[in-house]
Amino acid sequence: MPSDLPDRIARVRARIDDAATAAGRRPDDVRLMLATKTQDAGTVLAAVHAAADLAAARGDDRPVLVGENRVQELVAKAPDLADLVAAGRLEVHMIGTLQRNKINQMLPTVTGLAAVDRLSLAEAVARRCVRDGRTLDVMVQVNVSGEESKSGVAPTEAVELATGVAALEGLHLTGFLTIGANTPDEDEVRAGFARLRAVRDEVVAGGTPGTEDARELSMGMSTDLELAVAEGATIVRVGTAVFGARPPA
Ligand SMILES: *Cc1c(COP(=O)(O)O)cnc(C)c1O
């Protein structure tokens, strides 16, 4: 675990604040999500506490956000995070591609699912949420770059998927997630983020019941968070800049 986690988180937070200010936005309108894949539970906890301390010093009492990519890791770390989640001080979101046969394992470990890329998956999750008497926050994942390696619905189909998800009992649509284009061309990366914002704006303006809270734009990571904030990101998901380089997958 990097011993300088508080410093690293403060530096990322300063990057977010600077980007927001440069874009004429309020820094607090952009939240930091810790992207914790491959980090052990102790490291995640240390980062959560550091992030909470930093937020408290800014007068921000919203829960800390953690994003995990794999159900196996969610399950492994859940016992260490459960108290903070129960106390309302931590939200844990699934941000990776979800296999249908992992839904039951995932549900008790998360407060949100930010990677809905098809209606059949949303329906399956919704059925289980209704059965469990709970409502799960979800985001629709959109593939704004068209890169084949990336999951997510195509931008042209995103509005239809979002309105379909919004209609499902057991789910609460809170917004949209994307992973930026993997290119050094900043204009192209920005254009992708702008595409996600356009999808969000169209869905919210459409006024379909269940879409009124679908305002979050989860976009931007360690290398492109400034571009995402400039295009309206409300959540940036940061791993490497906080935890250091991950071992190759
Ligand atoms: C790993 C990951 C991140 C964080 O990426 P970094 O480049 O390490 O900041 C964000 N979002 C998703 C979906 C990820 O898988």
TrEMBL record:
Record keywords: Pyridoxal phosphate
Domain Alanine racemase N-terminal: 12-247
Record carries keyword Transcription regulation: no
Cross-referenced CDD domains: PLPDE_III_YBL036c_like
Residues with PTM N6-(pyridoxal phosphate)lysine: 37
UniProt key word Lipid biosynthesis: no
Recorded GO MF terms: pyridoxal phosphate binding
CC cofactor: pyridoxal 5'-phosphate
Gene3D superfamilies: Alanine racemase
Similarity remark: Belongs to the pyridoxal phosphate-binding protein YggS/PROSC family.
Free-text function comment from the UniProt entry: Pyridoxal 5'-phosphate (PLP)-binding protein, which is involved in PLP homeostasis.
PANTHER family in the cross-refs: PROLINE SYNTHETASE CO-TRANSCRIBED BACTERIAL HOMOLOG PROTEIN, PYRIDOXAL PHOSPHATE HOMEOSTASIS PROTEIN
HAMAP family: PLP_homeostasis (MF_02087)
Protein name: Pyridoxal phosphate homeostasis protein
Source organism of this protein record: Isoptericola sediminis
